[in-house]
Amino acid sequence: MLDTTVNTQTQEMLDSLNAALESGDVARAAALFATDSYWRDLVAVSWNLKTVEGPAGVADMLTHQLAQTRPGKFEIQSGEIPTKEGGVITAWVTFETKTGRGWGLMRIREGRIWTLLTALQELKGFEENRGTRRPMGAEHGARKNRLSWKERRAAEEADLGYGTQPYVVVIGGGQGGIALGARLRQLGVPAIVLDKHDRPGDQWRSRYKSLCLHDPIWYDHLPYIKFPDNWPVFTPKDKVGDWLEMYTKVMEINYWTRSEVTRASYDETSGKWTVEVNRDGETVTLEPTQLVLATGMSGKPNMPEFPGMETFQGTIQHSSHHQGPEAWEGKKVVVIGSNNSAHDICAALWESDADVTMVQRSSTHIVRSDSLMEIGLGALYSEEALANGVTTEKADMIFASLPYKIMHEFQIPLYEQMRERDAEFYAGLEKAGFDLDWGDDGSGLFLKYLRRGSGYYIDVGASQLIIDGAVKLAKGQVDHFETDAVVLADGTRLPADLVVFATGFGSMNGWAADLISQEVADKIGKVWGLGSDTTKDPGPWEGEQRNMWKPTQQEHLWLHGGNLHQSRHYSLYLALQLKARMEGLETPVYGLQEVHHLS
């Protein structure tokens, strides 16, 4: 390519890509990509969440999809100017497909496309009623017996699920289900979100009182309505609960509280689900076409069993059922585990004058909150980022544009900075006997989260208690219980009035086994992880989160969850997939994930 301006080089690349795609020349399009390139597509071309690698991967996806999805009209996004740094051109782009419009981010290195992110944003003819298409709200003029907005809304609530069946049922009304419910509402997809609690947000209110979000506010917005500018950086759990309840109401989500699914089954002949719901004591049968399990990124609580538990005279809880430290003042408490929940619970118990011992069974990655915010997140999610023009939407896309295959290369230097900056802190932990790690390849927290969803703690104060010995540390595996103690494999005896198992959660398909069948759970396979072949993330390489936000091997069954950032960002792509199917659009799926692991 000619060595001209950055803008010209970018435009020439887009012109070449458009020409190849328009003419159906797969080989010519693939040749524009570097040998070590990555095209990450979010629904636009693949009707999947799919990353293909190298010219061969690009060619394979286009061979299967080009004639049907017809991507093209790639342009530099209006108002954006491509930049060049370190020999890499970065450009915001827009594009169209046969059925939709999208935007993305392209990086060019040495005259070839290095990374390309294409993300569908809307479906042609089915755009959201927002901006210039927003509803009027008021009907000007006069008409007899007309219903108010409130009356029409009440009639809809009374009818949906009884007189009219929803197209989608979402099981789970935490942040994931609520974000998806809002997206579906704006797309005109009849949906019901089911939750067993009394009020939206009770999933947060019912947890231990010291719980708060460890991610900063800029990372945690929900779709459509951002947290106000005076919202705290780290949101306390009850404030999260109140926000979710408010959001559910103002976004007019059809949200059924005190509603627990007792059974669900799929009829291949009709292409519909039968979902039996206990709605506040009343049995209601729903028959949606699409079923979404939005029960979080995690599955059922991992509650180990050990000899002697049945004779233990104290209390045994899983961390998800621990409501707080108030009842344990002056008591002996043993917390099994050393990740986020374990640290939070230990700190809260110590503050309430309990005698606390943490049992560390394996090494833990710890990063201080202020270091994570400044070094790990500051460039994308902070007041400084906003001042630099990096909106939440842009930050989400930049983060999504880094292929998982090479993300560790960008993360390792950041965590090396943190290790150096907080060397004294880590030395104190090691002196206290705490086993630290930085991930299998030194890539730190984000990759641990994406690969396994566990094994880390964002320090907001509990680590100092361990350094000071205020929270005692024991190490090893639990062997058995006695009537008044936990005994470790090395014979260490830990007297206890309360034992909290902060032992995490199983794969999310465990919910499918309980609600539908083990057969369906096995048909889906393991949920979460990238196939990185690192600890708790077995290969083969997947390139995307297993089974999340995309078609699964079980027809018409979807899984949705993750933190607030993922619930916000990926709810759009799941909602667009569901809307397209409701409207009867062609949705040829490329690269449907195979099942390699059952749990």
UniProtKB/TrEMBL annotation:
Residues 18-114 form the SnoaL-like domain. The keyword Oxidoreductase applies. The keyword Transit peptide does not apply. It comes from the Bacteria. Keywords: Oxidoreductase. Pfam families: Pyr_redox_3, SnoaL_2. This is FAD-dependent oxidoreductase. It comes from Thioclava dalianensis.
